[in-house]
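Give me structure tokens for this 459-residue protein.
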Amino acid sequence: MADLQLTDDVPPDADDGVWLSCIECGETFAPFDDIRYTCDHCDGLLEVRYADLPTFEDFEGEGSGVWRYHAALPFDVGVTLPEGNTPLHEVPRIENAAGVDSLRVKHEGMNPTGSFKDRGMTVGVRVAKEVGVDRLACASTGNTSAALAAYGARAGLETLVLLPAGKVAAGKIAQAALHRARILEVDGNFDQCLDIVQDLAQLGEAYLLNSLNPFRLEGQKTIGLEIMEEHYEDYGEYPDRIVLPVGNAGNTAALYKCFRELVKSGAITEDQVPKLTGVQAEGAAPMVEAIEEGNDEVRRWDDVETIATAIRIGNPVNAPKALPGIRATGGTAVAVSDDEITEAQREIAGEGVGVEPASAASVAGLHKLREEGVVGADESVVCLTTGHLLKDPDAAAAAGNDPEPVANSTDAVLDHIGASSSVGQSLRQKASTAATSPLALLAGGVGLAYLYRKLRSTE
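Here you go.
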């Protein structure tokens, strides 16, 4: 089981108070001397650690977005577009339907490339420049490739993305292509693409920027910092629970790290940490399986399928960090059907907030957990939505209303939309009254007189 305890001991290989630590064996490494993604000794996952951890007071007066929180990051600024400062939407109809004390939706689809991945890339690509690489690479279900392509372009670095052929939404491929990434479509699933990218990284052919890279998660933990600050400002308290979609479990791991650091710094107490609650699609739910069975590790699912392409992942690499986070915070994990995801996507759109299917899994999961009595009516909840609806336009079109053909005339449109409606009758009545009013008749007479004079003046 991973040891995620933060320590006061600063190792000699720390660089300006920053170092890497293995969550399995505790070995430490300098952060930027060499390129590494896992522990040299046991191949365990690494975490970025800090000698000094900030409190909320340290962020005051530092602007907005990811780099507002530079005191909690390895650098003062990264390769930025900029990113962060995403809305925490009120959704009163969903709140009422869910039957919770309060509900907000943190919409990460409002980042520059339309997903939360930008938060990780602003830090990760900055590290790539720090260690002197010239080629970036990732495996992707779409959002990672779009973000890496954009930030790689911003940094002037070559970008290579490996995608499972036929399994990535068109909007995401278009983004990566326009930002000049080299797109390799692999005859396999996401996990197999990641296997290849890891091989390329080990061979020194590219710098890996999937969430296996510990610096990616540093940027993503700022989601938690924004939620905590704004929720406290609006309600005078922190949320009881954060519900989020789970694919590679990077956000779950990042949020848990965020909360551990806030507790360690004294910014919050243990009982103020929100319950981390993961949601997966039924066709790709290895994390849910591990939680339900009480396992310390996930079993890799080789065959995964769901409409929620962004979380169509069978081997979440951050599970060793995320599973302890769910359990330690008193959270849970739940699987939802594709139909439940689509219905939640429509429900969120009904509040004016557009998200891709994977994002809607969080709201679908909240409904299911309320029905099961796992989430209480007295809870304040934040649902995380991770990507914009235009990431997957085909899914959005399928979930939305069909176009309605109509003839090319105003009368045809009036007939089609129901000219007998109360609104239509009211407008027509007002128009009729206005046309026959003394003022209108007078205006008409004045107009005719004016036209007569104009015609006479040209004779």
